[in-house]
Known about the structure:
This protein is mostly helical. The chain has helices at residues 32-67, 89-100, 113-128, 144-154, 188-206; strands at residues 131-134, 139-141. It has a two-stranded antiparallel sheet with strand order 1-2. The termini are far apart.
Amino acid sequence: MPKHEIFEPGPPDERNKVDASLGYEQSDVKVTGIVVFMTSLLILVAVIGVLCYGIGKVFNAHMNKEDGPNSKWTKTVDVRQLGNFPSSPELQNKVADLTQTFPTPRLLNDDGDQDVANMHAREDLLLDNYTWIDQSKGTVRIPIERAMELIAQRGLPAAPPVQAQAPMTGDSTPTVTMPLTNGFARTSFEQEEAQAEAVKQQHGDQK
């Protein structure tokens, strides 16, 4: 059966008694643990440095084996010998112009919604306004609404009849049962932009 010892308080141990009469710690710091820790840390850093150096040597040897020896085309140049280039506003402007006029095809900096909206805006300018096709010949591009009115008044020119050949054996004449598209439609991005503009204009009118 387990035995339970009864603890009876007694006088404190003289060895564990702390003299606080001076108001500060009288014992010295044990530097053994600090020295052991710092020594272990230095050894660990040295081992990691040697290991990284060995891994780098192995990688370089493998790359040199695959790429072959250096030639005049693969010579390593020390760019530190070139020094720092002076800051030239003219050169910076040229670099900015080159970055702005980078040749196509350019990478999109968004999802492409803004580019599609800009393309539709350019198309609207051509479809809704008079523009020159060839000013020397006097040819003008008219708005699409005016073109539809003229076609409704004058009609389309009669096209010459198409001489259709008889289908070969086993072939059939293709027929289109319905239009492939239902006309031009704005993208969701353009519709959201138009709705936001309409709401903004409505709030402005209410004020």
